[in-house]
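Quick illustration, no need to memorize.
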Amino acid sequence: MLLSNLTQWVGSSLSAKEAIEINAKAGFDAYDISLFQLTRDENYEFNQPDYIEKAKALRQYADSLGIVCNQSHAPYPSSTGKEEEDKRIFEKIVRAMEIAATLGAKIIVVHPKQHLCYPDYPDELFRLNVEFYKSLIPYCEKFGIKVACENMWQYNNGFKAPSDSTCSRAWEFNKYLDAINSEWIVGCLDIGHASLMAADIPDFIRQMGNRRLQALHVHDTDFKYDKHTLPFMERIDYIAVCKALAEIDYQGDFTYEADAFYRGKPKELYLATTKYMCEVGRYLISVIEEAKANG
């Protein structure tokens, strides 16, 4: 099981190359390449005509440091409900798949479409998303990379709190993946998102099983806000989570999305911060491995 950290951190202005170097120095096995800027900045390096050459050069640099790209995150949101904008977003997602595959990633997380209010349009969102993910399968086959759907949440302005959205419950997540029915489309459980829906996270894991659940976004919350901080900083019982992962014989990697743990820290402390994150990750992986060994 590889221990991986993302490359875009809250509050930092690091390039992907700089973040990869820090992750390598801190002891991480892998990095999750953050490709959010594809839809946000036309001057972004991977929006240039030579984006594949840039990806190859970045992979060569990471290889020289002894760290690999295990996973990626495509730009989001995946839809706005506006035809021309959604066409542009789709093209950027496909480019993200190609870049991630060039870097060596085996999985890229792509958010489901959720531009509609979930309580009012659950069936329409299901139809749109099954169609959406199936449309990505030819690109999965072309580039040799799996797409991972992620469990989401929406914000209820009336109650000033998170509320259900696409795949926020295990039964619906399973329904999506089973309807798509492709080895190329798998599940990424965002553990923090699951906690916002007051879900029993270990049961969520058990319901999905290791065939569907092939990737993780690991971070902690207070059950109220999507805080994206390090495990043990808030309220999720990560020992129980790890034991559930062992119970299903989870075969994927342990990938952080705890970027907010860097918030407020000066650049001079990024390496120390990342080293501590690595230590916590190694401990949690040991809990999984020990639980597997004890059956």
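The CA atoms of residues 243 and 286 lie 10 Å apart.
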